[in-house]
Amino acid sequence: MASQRLTRINEEMRREISEIIRTEIKDPAVQDVMISVVAVDTTNDLKTAKVYISVLQDSKKQEALAGLQKAQGFIRKEIARRINLRNTPELLFRLDESIERGIEMSKLINDVMAKDSVR
Q1: Which tens digit of pLDDT belongs to each residue from 26-35?
Q2: pTM of the prediction?
Q3: Contact 83, 12 (CB under 8 A)
């Protein structure tokens, strides 16, 4: 269970990383796609933070992830400048597939409901 302080840090980092990705990064692999920062999960010692992202275009997911990993140092430096933490965590970017899974499940449920209403 994350402490209240860690929860606030995660939320603030999520907000700042989203802003940095949206406004500061000039890499076309990142700038030309819709990237959402879904969540940030920071360890208790603030050494590492997993940043879960969602990319709208399926064909550009790996390219966007590679672009973010390439810009990791810049993003970390900006986080250190914007958020007053003793240690600025190392950022590990991960793809979050939960939105896509939710859409698939919703479609399956709708299909079953449509078949059931035909009977």
Answers
A1: 888 888 889 9
A2: 0.81
A3: yes
